[in-house]
């Protein structure tokens, strides 16, 4: 029986530490229902009840971190297609420069292929 109570006590201690650090890390404007300083006092002096109250009523609905999301597909502050100053034509046919470069590159590749074929036929 003492082992069960000890394990429960460790879980409560871990919950209290998590909630206390979470309140401290959370930005002032993200705290719900009460000011951040009051949340710190509640969680600090009423460990079990304060921790549960923080999770239910004080913790921000969405966590905002500076610098964007912290996951494998992180694209930085701006998603790829919402970057300020980025020009994207609505239709590929509208970008004449891009189409011209594509045609020139295709023609260059055709020429190189034909030269390799001619070289291969001469070597045989």
Automatic annotation (TrEMBL):
Q: Which Pfam families match?
A: PLDc_N (PF13396)
Superkingdom field? Bacteria
Q: Where in the cell is it found?
A: Cell membrane
Q: Which residues form the Cardiolipin synthase N-terminal domain?
A: 14-59
* InterPro entries documented for this protein: CLS_N (IPR027379)
Give the region (Disordered) as residue ranges.
Answer: 65-98
Q: Where is the composition biased (Basic and acidic residues)?
A: 74-85
The answer, when asked if Disulfide bond is one of the entry's keywords, is: no
| Swiss-Prot/TrEMBL keywords | Cell membrane, Membrane, Transmembrane, Transmembrane helix
Predominant subcellular localization, coarse grouping: membrane
How is the protein disposed in the membrane?
Multi-pass membrane protein
Stretches that traverse the bilayer:
37-57
What is this protein called in UniProt?
PLDc_N domain-containing protein
Query: What organism is this sequence from?
Result: Microbispora bryophytorum subsp. camponoti
Q: What is the lineage of its organism?
A: Bacteria, Bacillati, Actinomycetota, Actinomycetes, Streptosporangiales
């Amino acid at each position: 029986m003492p082992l069960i109570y000890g394990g429960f006590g460790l879980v409560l201690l871990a919950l209290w530490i998590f909630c206390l650090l979470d309140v401290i890390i959370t930005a002032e404007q993200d705290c719900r229902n009460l000011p951040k300083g009051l949340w710190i006092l509640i969680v600090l002096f009423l460990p079990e009840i304060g921790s549960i109250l923080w999770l239910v009523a004080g913790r921000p609905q969405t966590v905002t971190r500076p610098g964007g999301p912290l996951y494998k597909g992180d694209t930085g502050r701006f998603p790829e297609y919402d970057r300020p100053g980025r020009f994207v034509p609505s239709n590929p046919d509208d970008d004449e420069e891009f189409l011209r470069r594509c045609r020139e590159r295709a023609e260059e590749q055709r020429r190189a292929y034909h030269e390799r074929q001619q070289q291969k036929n001469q070597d045989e």
